[in-house]
Fold this sequence. Notes:
This protein is an all-alpha fold.
Amino acid sequence: MVQDCGKLSMKVIDHLHLHEFNATEKSDEYAKVRVTGWPRWHYGVLTMYSGHLAIPSCTNATGFDKRNDLLDFPTFSNDSVANHAHLHAWQDFIFFSKFHFRRGDYNHMQLHDLNLNKVSEYATFMALVATRRYKLAIDNR
């Protein structure tokens, strides 16, 4: 079943790539604007779209139900991370916000002050650690 979902997801990606996006929307220049096109189709999250479209179709007969509390759960929640397998930074300005993060609004935060059991603070921790490690790796080249 998992392989079937993967194959269907790839077919959906191919279809969306060929029929839903023009050359401009697929270009690097367009991607640099980040949210151009939002809330319409956005090429940068094509794999997410394909999974959302494919999984219900290929798992319908099994009784599988995509639980919104497990997948793509919003990073602005203060709920426990133990309840959510996958987080998604939505298009908003509520803490944790990818827009505030990109602006550097969280750079002053100390990692040891963050509560890693809360979704919003865990997302902040992960983003800050990844960014700081990347910058350190670049500086040590």
